[in-house]
Records
---
Amino acid sequence: MDWQAFAQQMASLARDLLAQESVDATLRRITNGAVELVEGCEAAGILLVHGDRVQSLAPTEQLVIDSDQLQERLRQGPCFDVARRAGHERVMRVHDFTQQADRWPDYVPRARGLGLGSMMGFLLYTDEEELGALDLYSRKPGAFTEAGEAAGWLLASHAAVAFSSARAEAQMREALTTRHLIGEAMGILMGRHGLEEEQAFDVLRKYSQETNIKLREVARQVCETGRLAD
């Protein structure tokens, strides 16, 4: 592997990741970057585990979704384990699916049926949070070498920082939008009903609680219609 060329490509990708305009765009750039930069990688995706549910993000092809859904259904698999830290591993490499049935006896033979030959999973994490797993797939057994694992790990490290940063920025934008909506809705209620600021907020909050509608959506309703639904 030409590590000098890889370093240059990785530096370019790292800058590109931070320039993306949304979380989805950042994730798509991560998985496409994995296919471009990691030797042997034919498909990639990001897997999140929410309790009993698995979420596939930015898959580069249907094979990734099929594997994720299979792991969700069976409650086992290398990427499933990495994402939920079942074995406390941060990296998982399955060299050859024809020889790896002991650890995941239900998943491996079915994965072979999907056409998988080998795969790698990397925990996406920062010092503050764990974000899921970056999963790399090949239809060929033995496609991923130690050099490929090192390259994948470097990519995952940059990806985790970019993912965390993009998500934090999106949450901040959402919080600012919510704050603006609530302020506008309070102003409408204050003007129409002669309420004080605290009273207007209490109206929104109580309506949200009684209808089980998020406060942001209640405020949006007031902004769009000028009133709360009966």
---
Amino acid sequence: MSVTPIDLQAYLAVHDLLVEEIEGLTDEQLHWKPAPDKWSVLEVLTHLTDHNIVVTFRIRELLANSTAALPAFSQDDWVSGQHANAAEVSELLFFFRQLLIYNHRLFSRLDAADWQKSGLNFKGQVVSVADVVQAFINHAIGHLAQIKRNKDAVRGLHTSD
């Protein structure tokens, strides 16, 4: 049985929180951007899915005792380069959830020493597997607030008509 220094239920719950936050949104609300240089809800979901992919890679690099610095990624360029505002919300949420499940199954096999394996992130800071997973949870929670702000703003546009 895994010895986990983080709340793995909170890790898995990220998907459900996203689903709950976007429930009932129209296509217009999913695509609406507060400004040309800001993300729509679909773009936030795309970013979180991309971030999940990158974190999945980072975790495996740490577990492999890699000496390479953990990669950064150009989040804005990734979002715009893949035309994220044209993505399908159901596909994003499905893939996001599958990565959570895939990683969760890995986490169940880790021992205390595995969770403490560490390396350098792109900022030159030492981070452990536990740090990377907790940072992912925190990052996703932060983007939930961004989605809520978008929802509130687009709804406010329609109530002032």
---
Amino acid sequence: MDKKRKLIDELQAYLLENKNAHYRLAYSYTKHPEDAWDIIQESVEKAIRAIHKSNFPESINNWFYRILINTSLDYLRKNKRLILTESNVLERMLEHEDHYENIDLEKAMDQIPSEIKTIITLRYFEDLKISDIAIMLDQNENTIKTKLYRGLRLLRLEMEEDL
């Protein structure tokens, strides 16, 4: 029992230390704050259940990111949001600040396949190494590199089309 308590404490410390990075990743999938927090909560629940089943890996970072990514993808499959709901439209209209900083990039990112979007997000927005991404996604490093460069090419094409 002491080992499980130690693992839960380690998980808790890790989650508190990396909560902003986890939120950014979940938000990159949903584009909705409440949904991002729901994904994080579900991911934490899955992680705690895994600890109780003795499924705790050596690298907590890679392990939890994998849970978070899979939970995000599951959430998107279950809750496809193709258009903004009326409440979201109203909420955006009432915002006092305009956020224009990365609109073109966000639009382009939304047009590429989710697997490639995940790789780009982890590499460039979360600053993870390709080797870590390969472990998280259970793929070969060369496959990750190929998908990353293909994704960057797709992003460039999407952004050029918008211009």
